[in-house]
């Protein structure tokens, strides 16, 4: 419901008139932030250390990757895109699971992430909340917040008192990692999408709470944050403009994974709206769609990827350049995993997000498309001072094609023409020509050959004019530029288009260069010269290399071949003038003496081409010498044979499995005296229950996993049914017992988050007899709280009503348990969210090192005979050699539509929640570092059958998802204790 109203609100906002404000005093050139002079800005773009920069960033959530040594892998992959920044959220609810007690240890320590960002050469945009959304539990708000009265995300003093310790704690960590202190942090964002506001009665409030914003900025200040602050308005609505640099979010393709090509028309209005709201600061998009979330019963991320694949990057990202966007953060560039119950109820274990870097850290085609674009912008400094000046339609009537013209406002000559289909959902190709302005007058391109170009459906192109590439003056190019470098005085320009397309590059030069095709077919290159201009037209094939004397070397390649090129240093300072072709990933390049050392990943036999200064006399790839030979155009080529040795992968189905019953609660003799007594009679929750005592789990400190309730009654006599209203979040399920008699289950469905159930008791109760009703329910995560002032994250998990039919028994008491210890959770290393309330987990039986030899043997493929829960354990060893990266997953094959739910624990870490009948996820990536790649692993599974006849897994496999040679180097196992008997556990 809330999600729907939010989308409606966003849609309305997108069409709403832009808020008009009084124009602030004229732009300050290079405004400083809070007294520091390192990160500054003007009305066009940011400066870092005095130089103008396009901030091209990708969003990553450190909390969704609990292996510290893998951050560098992701960050190097982001750097290799040509990006210069990474943006992070910090999840308050994880690090302050118990109020006042911060957990920044082990996998929750942010320092290794900051260090890795610095090592990879990326700046950091720090977004600590307090609210983050992010499809995460509570949207970042802590579970204990349920017991804090009143509205959240405004200046309610109870809420202020709740967040201040957190912002102080996280703020100091961010402050010490600021660029002004030698760290990577360049920008900091308080709050998230502070754009919609609610009254206590749930009605919309048109006004943001500026006092809350002031308090947050003050708290950032007090923590020592001095880099500029930014905001991410959900649309250009002019909210939270008290930050230094106003920014906004945009998700132009929507989240409709069901209908992948339902692309909406992109908005033309961004630039004008941005200027209306924030005329003196750069056009900054803090979140731009890099994929999509998916929900229980959803379509799966491969389907989402059809919506948000490389075509989306071509069309919509380029459209943001048409709005002169100078800070662009892609949400998500790497999604990661909702391990340990940290999703909100709207999502499942995978947070793959159909992002450019998949959950298993492999690279999707979209990654390579982004690389082409980010590289281009990095070497096109005039873009940073450009603004849209005109929109052409082609043809004028009918206008299949929209062409936005940007002009460099400072230099006054360079232009960028962004060409796209007027309707991105268009499925047919469209012909076009473009009227361009150049330093020698207006022209219509194409100039050579046919009269029009063809723009394929779902594509977009950038045409440049008067573009300097070193000393070369490109008058115009209709071939897209990926990069250029000046290497030993020769300018190398890398141009691309789709296979078979023709394009032109015109160079303004008085030199009568001979057009020398050194690679590819000479017949595909046509040229024309005048006294001032040399124009080449190339029909694009795999690769054409054209030398123009000693001064210029042009690579004209098709898009797929362009994907192969890497620029290890996109900086215009030409400190490392090197371009490398080949390899799945280029991580680093550096000279040591005359040796050019390259590191990266390959997945097949690779012919590298090294375009480097003559100074390079020898080459190494991951430390091994690469023998090369000279090409006809003065570059070096060397073949590398990739080795990806086979490793023994255990057949999980054939391992020896041990098991125990994990629902002793429904045996007659079970003693729940150590459980928490649910005896509160008041809740701060706005939904007041009808029950005699409060039966909301968060009121007793339980916020995740399974929750068990036990109601003890003395029968009046004649009770026949038990009725309840219970809530657990989308796709939740529950089962009910009367003593040891199973009464029934609600199996769940993708949408419902609550259920009214009525169950026949085990025969009419006898007067005076004692009974225990046991309810086992799923907690699908705390709800998000998108509106300021909302209390949605307090949505209860538990019962708001129950009654008996036939007669009304006398209540003795209710007992409740979730994870052992609740907010004083048992496992500091793996955090409060890792565990739920199942017996075996409360006991710590999911941890490695338990002696389970006395347990009975049974495989989860044999499964459980009736309704209930069993807990299975097995061990296996892995021995994966160094120097390869083999991401793995635990797969359950195809769904059988049985109502069974599985929690997967790998070496104690909860790395997946599988619901067979709801899905969609059947494959659960588990990273190296959680899986021990060199030694023993403990795999434990809880198997909850909601079927009368029981349930079993159909298959279970450990699958190697990809094999590359290279990788990030040694990956240490995440620290987490082994099993020891848990004092006080029950
Ligand atoms: C935007 C949030 O800021 C971000 O945290 C995440 O939830 C993202 O959406 C969707 O994945 S909200 C935007 C969709 C209105």
From TrEMBL:
<dbReference type="Pfam" id="PF13364">
    <property type="entry name" value="BetaGal_ABD2"/>
</dbReference>
<dbReference type="GO" id="GO:0004565">
    <property type="term" value="F:beta-galactosidase activity"/>
</dbReference>
<dbReference type="InterPro" id="IPR031330">
    <property type="entry name" value="Gly_Hdrlase_35_cat"/>
</dbReference>
<feature type="signal peptide">
    <location>
        <begin position="1"/>
        <end position="16"/>
    </location>
</feature>
<dbReference type="InterPro" id="IPR025300">
    <property type="entry name" value="BetaGal_jelly_roll_dom"/>
</dbReference>
<dbReference type="InterPro" id="IPR008979">
    <property type="entry name" value="Galactose-bd-like_sf"/>
</dbReference>
<dbReference type="InterPro" id="IPR025972">
    <property type="entry name" value="BetaGal_dom3"/>
</dbReference>
<dbReference type="Pfam" id="PF10435">
    <property type="entry name" value="BetaGal_dom2"/>
</dbReference>
<keyword id="KW-0732">Signal</keyword>
<keyword id="KW-0325">Glycoprotein</keyword>
<comment type="similarity">
    <text>Belongs to the glycosyl hydrolase 35 family.</text>
</comment>
<keyword id="KW-0326">Glycosidase</keyword>
<dbReference type="InterPro" id="IPR017853">
    <property type="entry name" value="GH"/>
</dbReference>
<dbReference type="InterPro" id="IPR019801">
    <property type="entry name" value="Glyco_hydro_35_CS"/>
</dbReference>
<feature type="domain" description="Beta-galactosidase">
    <location>
        <begin position="383"/>
        <end position="565"/>
    </location>
</feature>
<dbReference type="InterPro" id="IPR018954">
    <property type="entry name" value="Betagal_dom2"/>
</dbReference>
<dbReference type="Pfam" id="PF01301">
    <property type="entry name" value="Glyco_hydro_35"/>
</dbReference>
<protein>
    <recommendedName>
        <fullName>Beta-galactosidase</fullName>
        <ecNumber>3.2.1.23</ecNumber>
    </recommendedName>
</protein>
<feature type="region of interest" description="Disordered">
    <location>
        <begin position="967"/>
        <end position="986"/>
    </location>
</feature>
<dbReference type="InterPro" id="IPR001944">
    <property type="entry name" value="Glycoside_Hdrlase_35"/>
</dbReference>
<keyword id="KW-0378">Hydrolase</keyword>
<dbReference type="GO" id="GO:0005975">
    <property type="term" value="P:carbohydrate metabolic process"/>
</dbReference>
<dbReference type="InterPro" id="IPR036833">
    <property type="entry name" value="BetaGal_dom3_sf"/>
</dbReference>
<dbReference type="Pfam" id="PF13363">
    <property type="entry name" value="BetaGal_dom3"/>
</dbReference>
<dbReference type="InterPro" id="IPR037110">
    <property type="entry name" value="Betagal_dom2_sf"/>
</dbReference>
């Amino acid at each position: 419901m809330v999600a729907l109203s939010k989308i409606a609100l966003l849609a309305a906002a997108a069409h709403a008139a832009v808020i008009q404000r009084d124009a602030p005093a004229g732009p300050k050139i290079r405004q400083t932030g809070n007294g520091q002079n390192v990160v500054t800005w003007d009305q066009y773009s940011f400066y870092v250390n005095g130089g103008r920069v396009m901030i091209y960033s990708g969003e990553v959530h450190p909390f969704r990757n609990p292996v510290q040594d893998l951050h560098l892998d992701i960050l190097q992959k982001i750097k290799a895109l040509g990006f210069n920044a990474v943006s992070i959220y910090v999840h308050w609810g994880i690090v302050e699971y118990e109020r006042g007690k911060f957990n920044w240890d082990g996998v929750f320590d942010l320092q290794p992430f900051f260090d890795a960002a610095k090592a990879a050469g990326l700046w950091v945009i720090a977004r600590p909340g307090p609210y983050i959304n992010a499809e995460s539990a509570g949207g970042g708000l802590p579970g204990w917040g349920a017991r804090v009265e009143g509205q959240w995300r405004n200046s309610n003093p109870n809420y202020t008192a709740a967040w201040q310790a957190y912002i102080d704690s996280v703020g100091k960590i961010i402050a010490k990692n600021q660029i002004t202190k030698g760290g990577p942090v360049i920008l900091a964002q308080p709050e998230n999408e502070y754009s919609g506001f609610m009254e206590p009665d749930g009605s919309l409030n048109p006004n943001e709470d500026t006092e809350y914003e002031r308090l947050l900025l003050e708290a950032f200040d007090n923590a020592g944050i001095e880099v500029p602050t930014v905001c991410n308005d959900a649309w250009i609505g002019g909210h939270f403009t008290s930050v230094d640099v106003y920014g906004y979010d945009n998700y132009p393709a929507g989240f409709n994974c069901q209908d992948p090509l339902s692309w909406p028309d992109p908005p033309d209005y961004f630039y004008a709206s941005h200027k209306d709201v924030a005329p003196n600061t750069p056009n900054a998009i803090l979140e731009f769609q890099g994929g999509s979330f998916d929900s229980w019963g959803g379509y799966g991320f491969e389907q989402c990827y059809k919506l948000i694949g490389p075509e989306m990057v071509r069309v919509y990202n380029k459209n943001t350049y048409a709005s002169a966007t100078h800070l662009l953060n892609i949400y998500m560039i790497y999604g990661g995993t909702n391990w340990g119950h940290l999703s909100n109820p709207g999502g499942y274990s995978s947070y793959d997000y159909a992002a450019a870097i998949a959950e298993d850290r492999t690279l999707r085609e979209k990654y390579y498309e982004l690389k082409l674009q980010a590289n281009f912008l990095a070497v096109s400094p005039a873009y940073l001072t450009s603004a849209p000046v005109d929109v052409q339609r082609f043809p004028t009537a009918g206008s299949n094609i929209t062409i936005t013209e940007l002009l460099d406002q400072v230099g006054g000559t360079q232009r960028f023409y962004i060409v796209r289909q007027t309707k991105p959902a268009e499925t047919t190709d469209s012909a076009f020509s473009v009227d361009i302005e150049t330093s020698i007058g207006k022209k219509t391109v194409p100039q050579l050959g046919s009269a029009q170009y063809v723009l394929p459906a779902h594509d977009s192109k950038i045409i440049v004019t008067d573009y300097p590439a070193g000393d070369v003056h490109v008058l115009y190019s209709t071939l897209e530029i990926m990069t250029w470098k000046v290497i030993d005085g020769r300018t190398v320009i890398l141009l691309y288009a789709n296979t078979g397309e023709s394009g032109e590059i015109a160079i303004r030069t008085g030199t009568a260069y001979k057009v020398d095709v050194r690679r590819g077919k000479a017949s595909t290159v046509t040229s024309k010269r005048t006294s001032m201009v040399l124009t080449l037209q190339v029909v694009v094939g795999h690769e054409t290399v054209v030398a123009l004397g000693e001064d210029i070397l042009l690579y004209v390649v098709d898009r797929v071949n362009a994907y192969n090129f890497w620029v290890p240093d996109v900086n215009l300072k030409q400190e490392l003038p090197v371009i490398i072709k080949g390899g799945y990933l280029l991580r680093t390049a550096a000279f040591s003496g005359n040796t050019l050392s390259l590191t990266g990943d390959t997945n097949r036999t690779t012919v590298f081409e090294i375009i480097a200064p003559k100074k390079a006399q020898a080459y190494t790839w991951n430390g091994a010498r690469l023998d090369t030979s000279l090409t006809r155009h003065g570059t070096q080529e060397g073949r590398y044979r990739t080795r990806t040795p086979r490793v023994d992968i255990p057949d999980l189905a054939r391992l020896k499995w041990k098991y125990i019953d994990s629902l002793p609660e429904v045996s007659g003799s079970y003693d729940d005296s150590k459980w928490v007594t649910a005896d509160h009679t008041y809740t701060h929750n706005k939904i007041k229950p009808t029950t005699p005592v409060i039966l909301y789990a968060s009121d007793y400190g339980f916020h995740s996993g399974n929750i068990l309730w036990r109601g003890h009654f003395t029968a009046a006599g004649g009770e026949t049914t038990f009725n309840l209203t219970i809530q657990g979040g989308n796709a939740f399920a529950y089962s009910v017992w009367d003593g040891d008699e199973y009464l029934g289950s609600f199996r769940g469905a993708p949408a419902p988050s609550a259920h009214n159930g009525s169950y026949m008791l085990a025969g009419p109760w006898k007067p005076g007899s004692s009974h225990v009703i046991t309810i086992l329910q799923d907690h699908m995560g705390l709800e998000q709280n998108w509106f300021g002032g909302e209390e949605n994250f307090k949505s209860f998990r538990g019962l708001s009503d129950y009654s008996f039919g036939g007669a009304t028994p006398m209540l003795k008491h209710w007992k409740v348990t979730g994870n052992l210890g609740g907010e004083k959770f048992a496992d500091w290393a793996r955090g409060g969210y890792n565990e739920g309330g199942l017996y075996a987990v409360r006991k710590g039986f999911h941890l490695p090192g338990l002696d389970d030899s006395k347990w009975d043997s049974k495989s989860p493929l044999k499964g459980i005979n009736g309704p209930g829960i069993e807990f299975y354990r097995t061990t296996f060893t892995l021995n994966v050699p160094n120097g390869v990266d083999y991401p793995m997953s635990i797969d359950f094959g195809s769904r059988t539509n049985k109502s069974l739910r599985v929690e997967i624990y790998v070496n104690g870490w909860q790395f997946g929640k599988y619901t067979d009948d709801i899905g969609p996820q059947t494959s659960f990536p588990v990273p190296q570092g959680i899986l021990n790649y060199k030694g023993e692993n403990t795999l434990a599974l809880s198997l909850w059958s909601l079927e009368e006849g029981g349930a079993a897994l159909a298959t279970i496999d450990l699958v190697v998802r990809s094999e590359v040679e290279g990788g990030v180097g040694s990956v240490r196992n995440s620290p987490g204790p082994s099993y020891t008997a848990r004092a006080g556990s029950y």
